[in-house]
Each structure stands twice: as C-alpha cells, then as structure tokens.
What we know:
Keywords: Signal
Strand content: 15-25%
Radius of gyration: 23 Å
Largest sheet: 11 strands, mixed
Protein name: ABC transporter substrate-binding protein
GO cellular component, one term: ATP-binding cassette (ABC) transporter complex
Domain Solute-binding protein family: 81-417
CATH architecture of the largest domain: Roll
Oligomer: single chain
Distance between the termini: 35 Å
Pfam families: SBP_bac_5 (PF00496)
Amino acid sequence: MRLPARRLLPxxxxxxxxxxxxxxxxxxxxxxxxxxxxxxxxxxxxxxxSGLSPxxxxxxxxxxxxxxxxxxxxxxxxxxxxALATSWxxxxxxxxxxxxxxxxxxxxxxxxxxxxxRSLTRAATAAPKPRILDGVDLTAKAAxxxxxxxxxAAEDPLVPQRLSSPQLSILAxxxxxxxxxxxxxxxxxxxxxxxxxxTSSATLDRYDxxxxxxxxxxxxxxRFVPDGTARAAALRSGEADIVEAVPVSQAALLDADLVxxxxxxxTNTLYLNTAKGAFEDAGLRAAAREAVDAAxxxxxxxxxxxxxxxxxxxxxxxxxxxxxxxVTRAKAGNPAGRSxxxxxxxxxxxxxxxxxxxxxxxxxxxxxxxxxVREYAAIEADALSGAFDAFLLSRATVLDSGDPAAYLYxxxxxxxxxxxxxxxxxxxxxxxxxxxxTPTGDARRRAVIAAEAAVLAADAxxxxxxxxxxxxxxxxxxxxxxxxxxxxxVTAATYVE
Length: 497
C-alpha cells in the first residue's frame, strides 16, 4: 500500500540527512546566496570511485555538473549534434572534425586541435580503455589548428556517437600531468570544478568566459550521499535543491510536485557466471532464469515504478520490442543441492531488496543461495574477477553512445571490459561485431536485436526490469535537467529562485 504523499519522514532519516549534508551546504540547511544569486545544492548518489577521472564512470559526474564537455553531444533521439566540434565528415575509416573557435579551458588556455588530440589519445591508450572504446582502435591527429582527424582500424559508423561519451571529454593539458587525470580547473563547461573533498563533496563555480553563455547559477555545491533515505530526507527538509536517484521506497513519501519520473535505458540484470561453478552448466542457468519472478519484484519492490523486462533493452528504446522475436533456450536442469553466491551493492537502494527476493526465488527452485551485499566501490573488483556465481546489477544500456551496441559488446563479448558473466561464445562475438559494424538505421537496429537474442539464448544474463529516473527538485528550482541517459543534471540554464 502506498503511503500518503505528505507523510513526514522519520526523525532518524532527517537527522541522517543533516549529518551527511552539513559541511557542503550552509549549517542551517538554507541555500548559500551571494550577490549574484543562489548556489545549487545537489545530493548525489555515488561518490567518486576513481578520483573523478574522465576515463572512468566518474566522467558522468563531470558531465552532470556541466564542467567537462565532449566534441559531440546527443539529441533526444540519440543522433549526434555539435558541441566542441562544429561539424564532421567521414571518408572510409577516417572522420574529420572541425573544432569550435573561441573556447577556453577553465585555466584560461585555448581549445585547439592539439588539445583534442591529447585528450583522445590519452583515452585511446589507457589501460583499461574507457568502455566506449571496447573493441575500437582509435588514432587522433591534428590536421590544422582547428581540424582533427580520427581514424579507426575498421570502418566505424558510430564514431561521432562514441565521441559524445563523457569518458572522452576534452580537458586542458594540466589535467594530464602525471599518471592520473585530474579534471579540477581543466574543463570547458559553464561551471569550473574548483575543489574535490575525497568522496564527500565537490565545489564548482560559474565560469564567466564560457563559450555558450554565462550560467544562471553562481555555482554548484555537491554532496555525495549514498544512503537513499538520507537523500530523500534532504529534499524534504530543504537541505538540498536537487536530489538524484530518489529510491522508490521514498518517492511516495515526498510531495508529488517535487518528484519527476522518466523512463530510462537502465536494466536490472542478473549476470550468471558462465566460466565456473553452478552456472557453467547451461541447464542450471536455464533453471535460474525459470526461477525468477520479475513481475513480483516490479510490483513489490518498485511499487509499479518500473517496466517488466522482455529483453536486455527496454521501452526507452521503443523500436526494440517490435523487432524482437521468441528466443530458443536450453531446458532447465535440476538445481537441487547446488550452492551459489549472489552479490549486489547498496548504492542503489532497491538492489539489496531485489537480491533478497531473488534469493528466496532461487532457493524455492532448489538452489542454496548465500547473499553478499557491499557498497559498489568495495564489490566491483570481485564482481569483475568472477568471485560470484551471480551478480545483480543496475546497468545503463545506452549510457555512452546513445546506441546499445557498445553496452552489449562491453558486457557480453569475450574481450568485453565489463563481462561480469565471464561469457565467451564465438557466435555471440560475431553477432556483436556485426551489430557494431552495421551503419546506423533500421539495419543496425535489427543487428542489435539479433545480438541481444544470442546473449539471451545462452542465458548469460537474466534481465528483470527496466528502471525509471526518479529525481527530486525542491520548490524554486528552475531548469534542472531530467535526462534518461544520466548525462545532464545542472546545466547553464539551471538556477534556484
């Protein structure tokens, strides 16, 4: 039963929010206002895991704060449009990009072809590479003061979309002084990252020389608050202006006009370890798939605020359902007496509860299930190394390029950098390569769905549901982005009245 929208949160939750947020925002919980307006206070879910390096998933924080920018951005349909590059053209394996004039980095240096080449080369030669470059050999060269050529080993129709990934942000030379990449004072966006306090907070100030026009807010104060109840309480108590990833369990406790819900390309997926243990057996993978009752999880855990998965790609890609055909799978084996370890993380508030429901469902089918739950930063390495028999993940399916082929390759190719299933299959690899090489349009979409079917046929992963963005905006917040791709949050147009 859904609770009334205006029910007060427990005092303990409000106290937790105050404890977590004080120190970044003003001590009395009010917004910090200067002569030129009010700073935007943001409560973020996950703290930085890699020092805000743009070569990691931390890049999406830089993008959501509008401090780091890319050559290309994506429109609502996922098509490429100009950003730091004003135009581009293709000639076989080589794409030529014209670089925007009049852009300066936050340290005052100018954007030119050499700066672009430096950033792209650092990403292309990183170990590991940013996942948007999985399976892609990319070389960038200056062809003039404001012209850059990008050449790939094989003809790649998605180069502009790839270059929209926040992991390929263009930063000033100062960011690359040493082995790590430090984005402080090195972006080109409307807000300059001026201070990072470990995994607790970050501060950004308006960059008045921004090429796209002066931002409306004087700055952004960010606090990292992994606890979902505390984030929601911070919105209710007035200690935060924008709260990302409001837990489903908390959404009903907030006034309806403070909450925005947007379907997003994010799937809750149970990855099964195909390399060792119980799920090396295709029949036991099939047994796990048949044991899962995702509909009860959507109804019970998500209170109906999610969409039941028919595949890895959800309603945020409306073309997927119409192209999908029935998949032939292995018959279920007998799991009686087989012990498995199921892992997940606490950073997304619903996942521990989903994992507990899965534990019960799998045990009912005959498995013996041990559940292991930690913060994501403390569990990712074990998940990638194959330490779990099954791992529950909330996974963005078009986060990087606006196209799902990169996600499918990263997660299910033999050499994919995020292959939690430890999955290796030559026919699937071939389907993934075909999807990645097919020109954009209907043919590519059909190839993507064929690759999805190949993965599902092997039961390397069991898709459960597709999430929705639930974001909280306090009264007085104007122009906050509600982005299903989770690339934008505070933009130059965002301010607090």
